[in-house]
């Protein structure tokens, strides 16, 4: 069976990254989620697909052959040479300047309280309202796969953000950093980062974990609860 | 950036996760001798599918379509001082 997403010759089918595929068995696994055909997926979206796999595949059926595989792929948080080789188009050349525009006050030392370059003003838990990216190198950037739980074929739409200052600010504070850095061992540290309601993440100490606060703080496309 | 299927498409994803990595590296450096190789917890996916297997330094990190698996121990030291890992970077203080 040939993967609709990836082959060794044409990479992810879009813009031609060629990497040795060590996961031929995984691509043929019977419990592959319902991934639609994606003939024009970009390398960036190839990574997105990889990112989504641990959450999609570790379901009631477990991983193929009960292998220990399944630890989040994003634990590898450094920019490794292998990943950059596989996905050379991740970063536009002017990415740093775009980032500076998006966060004039710096990040993660604290989000600016005004002048954020996005539409909308009210900062409720639902986010600012947000919308498509209106300027810079990522202007009107398009997504094709997802959203999670719906997975329509070639569901082209713009990348949306909907900043949620309450969530973002509850994560990006020195008090929160100090609390996390005071963890006595990795078990405690990990719970601050990854386990919801562990406590200690500032204003949201009964809410999401530190990792989730970053995602929710940027907001935008929302993950519907899977059944 | 709230959808696991598409969150990686937002360039902010990488800044967010670099921030988490920076926090981890900073925490390790506070007591490098005792913390550099400290891991704990269960093997898990994100979003709750916790398995009962304990995570160890030998647990493979599944890299999906992106790269071959690596054991956790290969990514514990971002400076790769013992030469057995493959990362090589540091954060400005």
Features:
heterodimer, A: 227 residues, mainly alpha, two-stranded antiparallel sheet, elongated, disordered N terminus, B: 93 residues, alpha+beta, two-stranded antiparallel ribbon, 4 strands, 25% helix, 13% strand
Order of strands, main sheet of chain B, comes to: 1-2
Uncertain spans of chain A: 1-43, 52-126, 199-206
* Lateral strand order in the biggest sheet of chain A: 1-4
Helix content of chain A: 25-40%
Mean pLDDT level of chain A: 50
The profile of the biggest β sheet of chain A is: 2 strands, antiparallel
Distance between the termini of chain B: 27 Å
Oligomer: heterodimer
Strand content of chain A: under 5%
Query: What is the total tally of β strands of chain A?
Result: 4
Rg result of chain A: 19 Å
- Report how far the terminal alpha carbons of chain A are from each other: 28 Å
Secondary-structure-based class of chain A equals mainly alpha
What does it look like?
The complex is a heterodimer of chains A (227) and B (93). Chain A is mostly helical and 227 residues long. In chain A, 29% of the residues lie in helices and 4% in strands. Chain A is built from 8 helices and 4 strands. In chain A, strands 1-4 form a two-stranded antiparallel ribbon. The radius of gyration of chain A is 19 Å and the shape is elongated. Chain B has 93 residues and is an alpha+beta fold. Chain B is 25% helix and 13% strand. Chain B has a two-stranded antiparallel sheet. A two-stranded antiparallel sheet of chain B has the order 3-4. In chain B, strand 1 and strand 2 (50-54) form a beta hairpin. At the A-B interface, helix 2, helix 3, helix 4, helix 6 and helix 7 of A face helix 1 and strand 3 of B.
